[in-house]
């Protein structure tokens, strides 16, 4: 898997604009789908019919469990309304501060998956089970237990802020997708057994919550997991492309001056040597050794001069003749 080079962790002032861009795209998708409510309802009914065909429509049973037992329904509503917006950014900040080598890859994975989900919201607006006609048998648990929390009847938005949410952003389920991302982070980066257990349990729990509260179908959850898988596969090539673009746009390094490039290399390590000699070797006798050993070592340090004269040296021949 691709890992960002060391020292390439983004700065917080470059991360905030990315979040603003994603939120802007989400807002644009919300505005586009407002005038297409009937299509959203049709898509929701079609998904429910498909699940009935394959007998995987478990949402009605879960929804009755949550509405009949407040001890299950109320905590589930709190989980749906809060954990999605608390744990995901908290893990992002934790990765940024404590796992900088992995932050950029995990952030890119999350951002790409979210953008793919936003495309799905725009192209396939889907009415969640809680907004279908009551004849389908679904009950909006967040409306039923609204006096226990800060939310109203508009998904997980606080009372009076329902216009800030996309009511028909059911397919795919980013609640499930982001929960899966959190689970992978906790499993891969956690140091304790309990952290890894939470990493496995949390995505499964959120999947049950989104269906039991009548906010998503089972196929929405499956699509959310598929979107995260696609984003995971695209994260590595996206990072490579970004690094390639950054390298091309980076200013070229200044040329090295000619005098610097041609400067001689000092290989004597600060020791002065005369021409034709190889330098003085370090003493091999430790201080305090007997005088005879130090004298012998000193004689070894005297550089040997190359033999001068040979068969063709006239001065050597003349000296030999005088000696005879």
Protein model, in words:
- The chain is mainly α and 324 residues long.
- It starts with 11 loop residues before the first helix and ends with a helix.
- Helix 4 packs across helix 8 (193-212).
- Helices cover 61% and strands 0% of the residues.
- It is built from twelve helices and no strands.
Beta content comes to under 5%
Quaternary state of this entry equals single chain
Q: Judging from the principal axes of the Cα atoms, what is the shape?
A: globular
Binned, the helix content reads 55-70%
Strands, total number: 0
* Content-based structural category: mainly alpha
Low-confidence stretches: 1-7, 272-279, 308-324
> What's the helix-strand series?
HHHHHHHHHHHH
Enumerate how many helices there are, as a single number: 12
**Radius of gyration computed on alpha carbons:** 38 Å
Largest sheet: none
Give a short synopsis of this structure:
With 324 residues, the chain is mainly α.
Write the SSE topology.
Blueprint: H1 12-33, H2 37-53, H3 59-68, H4 70-98, H5 100-123, H6 141-144, H7 174-189, H8 193-212, H9 218-249, H10 258-261, H11 291-301, H12 314-323
Helix pairs in contact: 1-5, 3-4, 4-5, 4-7, 4-8, 5-7, 5-9, 7-8, 7-9
């Amino acid at each position: 898997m691709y890992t960002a080079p060391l020292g390439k962790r983004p700065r917080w002032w470059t991360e905030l604009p990315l979040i603003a861009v994603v939120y802007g795209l989400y807002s644009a998708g919300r505005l586009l789908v407002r005038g297409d409510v009937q299509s959203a309802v049709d898509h929701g009914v079609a998904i429910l019919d498909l699940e009935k065909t394959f007998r995987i429509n478990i949402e009605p049973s879960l929804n009755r469990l949550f509405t009949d037992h407040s001890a299950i329904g109320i905590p589930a509503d709190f989980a749906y309304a809060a954990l999605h917006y608390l744990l995901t950014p908290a893990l992002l900040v934790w990765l940024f501060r404590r796992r900088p080598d992995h932050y950029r890859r995990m952030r890119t994975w999350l951002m790409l998956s979210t953008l793919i989900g936003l495309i799905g919201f725009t192209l396939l607006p889907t009415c969640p089970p809680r907004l279908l006609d009551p004849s389908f048998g679904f009950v909006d648990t967040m409306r039923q237990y609204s006096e226990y929390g800060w939310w109203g009847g508009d998904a997980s938005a606080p009372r009076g802020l329902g216009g800030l949410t996309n009511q028909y952003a059911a397919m795919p389920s980013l609640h499930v997708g982001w929960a899966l991302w959190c689970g992978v982070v906790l499993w891969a980066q956690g140091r304790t057994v309990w952290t890894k257990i939470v990493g496995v349990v949390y995505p499964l729990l959120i999947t049950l919550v989104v269906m039991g509260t009548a906010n998503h179908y089972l196929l929405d959850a499956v699509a959310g997991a598929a979107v995260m898988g696609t984003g995971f596969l695209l994260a590595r090539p996206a990072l490579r492309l970004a690094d390639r673009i950054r390298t091309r746009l980076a200013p070229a390094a200044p040329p090295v001056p000619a005098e610097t490039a041609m400067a001689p290399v000092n290989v004597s390590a600060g020791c002065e040597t005369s021409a034709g000699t190889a330098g003085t070797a370090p003493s091999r006798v430790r201080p305090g050794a007997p005088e005879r050993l130090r004298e012998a070592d000193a004689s070894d340090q005297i550089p040997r001069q190359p033999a001068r004269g040979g068969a063709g040296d006239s001065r050597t021949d003349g000296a030999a003749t005088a000696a005879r």
